[in-house]
Amino acid sequence: MSTDLQTPAPAATQSQNDDILLSVKDLHVWFELKKWGFSHVGWVRAVDNVNFDLKRSEAIAIVGESGCGKSSLMKTLLLLNRPREGQVIFEGKDISRLKGKELKWYRSQVGYVQQDPYGALPPFMPVHRILDEPLVINGVKDKRERQRRIRTALEEVALTPVEDVLNKYPHMLSGGQQQRVVIARAMILEPKLLVADEPVSMLDASVRVEILRLLRKLQEEHNLSVMYITHDLSTVRFFSERIFVMYAGKLVEQTHIEGLLDNPLHPYTVALLTGTSEPDAANARKLKEVPPGEPPSLVNPPAGCRFHPRCAHAIAGVCDVDEPPDFEPVPGHVVKCWLYKEGRTSYPEA
Amino acid sequence: MTDNTLLKVEDLTLYFKTRRGDVQAVDHVDFELPKNKAVVILGESGCGKTSMAKAILRLLPRNVSQYSGKIFIEDQDVMPLSDEEYRRQVRWVKISMVPQAAMNALNPVLRAGDQVAEPAMVHLGVDKAEALELAREMFQRVGVPEDFLTRYPFELSGGMRQRVAIATALITHPQLIVLDEPTSALDLLTQANIMNVLKTIKWETGTSYILITHDIATSSELADKVAVMYAGQIVEVNDADRFFAEPLHPYSQKLMASVPRLHGHDEPDFIPGRPPSLLNPPTSCRFIDRCHLRFDKCSADPPTFFADGHPVKCWLYEKEASDAIIPDSSK
């Protein structure tokens, strides 16, 4: 990693916009590939030049398939990865180089809801200890105060009566209840930002909606900002503000949910929407249109647009040569695709 | 039983012995599968759908306390067969299976082609060269490039490994393939791809499927019939056309209402509560605690009623009953 970048910027240096909680600028998360542990052979460009702002109490959904970089982006926001280049600005501070106490402060401001609740909870700790831990680490010394907060957190995620749950171990709870404990743990330090990584993909269909509603309720009541990461387009409506589509390390489309459903622009987004099934018996009588091939390796991504080898609308000499910049064919709807260079405002019919 | 029936399961029961008593994983289940059709078994985790698949294929763990009922494959009752006869005559000959997370179940030290070829060598009695030739054909059928025959599983992506697992089930040309959550660990577009492969195979070779899943939306890609399982029992069997439009059993209705949709503005709902423990299932209707339509009759276990010829285990359909089956008194 290059070390000649700036040290953490103090609060005052960034232009303050009180409305914006988190701002990601020119973010690159690359992982080094080494041979025999030391000689450099290349980079995995997991996140490449990503920019966006997240407002206070706003929810953003990031949609993409595995390997598209959505988890790397999320882990960078949690500072589990450090970016190679670019800035992550949280409340006016560049947090990407934080250390020590400031890092601890930042982590207390960000809650994390993991994908697999059973894997995310320590099997040897009862619920009350799981929830106590973040409070102890963050210096809540008064035991009564801690107990009060644990209680409130459990009530908030509707794990009641609280007494029944406090002494249980994770394996004694159902999947939905485990996920509630995970959410309670993420919420107990009263964070400003909640990062939810596929919070319902491991759960049964019948409880998914319950957990999504709970997350939405918490978002509304606490004015939380939420980053909701998923591969399932049919659940993003729950956080019906902005939605980003990610492909091979790039944000290829950014828009509002209605814009995405009614007027998808990027060929990849169109493929995702076509690929999503709705329960309908007619599905069984026809084949689905799926773009050929698989997402590219991020070590050697294709030149030009990274989707061009799979794209039905690829323009030879353009898409395979130059990387598309952001176009904004419809106000508030940004897409990285050459199709929209000359004023087109909707996806071309087949 | 008509000529067109491939599989008929009658009163199939599978209980497991545990220290706390018997787990009634599959409890007196009946259903039928016509040739070249796909039946989807829908249900929440723990409802016994995987146990039922294992009961049909007789892939049983050691702690079985009761395994009974009848399984007819084209008029032949396979239950009286000994384990060895079953293995030779039925498993992988007539029925094969793509187990859950099959893509992670491939042997890491064998080449993909060799793994696909193995069932052909065991069950069709062909030599290795011929078996590999068959494997090559299967690779084409499931859409894996031929040069992947000599690759190891770790060199393949998840979707490719899943296809290899399907090829392994296909190579002996079984009439029926049991697919246990074949796409749940895969990405959206890969899922759609695998569903396309399965559909094409069904149309081209006349194979039947039992598809076990909890993903209702994806299941509609393959379903001709839908069987809904709840707490070890099948509570409804219906045609796909009818089921996805207006399911009969209250549980099916709630399941359908819990599916988030891409279009349309109906907010999906969830099902409060949890299924009962299968250690001591209640003597009432098993869905009673979570049902929005319960009434006083529900305190007794409902028999199977027929609504327009579709079996439903719910007292609401008593009026329409023309041909009620009284549940087994041994319970």
Count the helices of chain B. How many? 9
Q: What would you give as the CATH superfamily of the domain at 20-240 in chain A? A: P-loop containing nucleotide triphosphate hydrolases
SSE succession of chain B: EEEHEEHEHHHEHEHEEHHEE
- Order of strands in the sheet with most strands of chain B: 6-7-8-3-9-10
**CATH class division of the domain at 20-240 in chain A:** Alpha Beta
Low-confidence stretches of chain A: 1-14
- Global shape of chain A: globular
Count all strands of chain A and give the number: 12
Number of strands of chain B: 12
* Biggest sheet architecture of chain A: 8 strands, mixed
Over all CA atoms, what is the radius of gyration of chain A? 22 Å
Which range best describes the helical content of chain B: under 10%, 10-25%, 25-40%, 40-55%, 55-70% or over 70%?
25-40%
Strand pairing plus helix content of chain A: what structural class? Answer: alpha/beta
Give the low-pLDDT segments of chain B: 321-331
Sheet of most strands of chain B: 6 strands, mixed
The fold-level CATH name of the domain at 20-240 in chain A is Rossmann fold
Strand content of chain B: 15-25%
Overall mean confidence score, pLDDT of chain B: 89
End-to-end gap of chain B: 26 Å
Structure description:
The complex is a heterodimer of chains A (350) and B (331). Chain A is of the alpha/beta class and 350 residues long. Chain A has a domain at 20-240: 3-Layer(aba) Sandwich (Rossmann fold), CATH 3.40.50.300. Chain A is built from ten helices and twelve strands. Chain A has helices at residues 70-77, 100-109, 117-120, 127-137, 143-156, 162-166, 175-187, 205-222, 257-262, 267-275, and strands spanning 20-35, 39-55, 59-63, 85-90, 93-94, 110-113, 193-197, 225-230, 242-247, 250-256, 327-330, 333-335. In chain A, strands 6-7-8-3-9-10-12-11 form an eight-stranded mixed sheet. A four-stranded antiparallel sheet of chain A has the order 2-1-4-5. The longest helix of chain A is centred in the middle third of the chain and has 18 residues, at 205-222. Chain A is globular, with a radius of gyration of 22 Å. Chain B is α/β, with parallel strands linked by helices and 331 residues long. Helices cover 28% and strands 24% of the residues of chain B. Chain B is built from nine helices and twelve strands. Chain B has helices at residues 49-57, 83-89, 112-124, 128-142, 158-170, 188-205, 216-219, 240-245, 250-257, and strands spanning 5-18, 21-34, 38-42, 64-73, 76-77, 95-98, 176-180, 208-213, 225-230, 233-239, 305-307, 310-312. Chain B has a six-stranded mixed sheet with strand order 6-7-8-3-9-10, with helices on both faces. The longest helix of chain B has 18 residues, at 188-205. The two termini of chain B are 26 Å apart. In chain B, 49% of the residues are buried. The interface between A and B is large, with 39 and 49 residues.
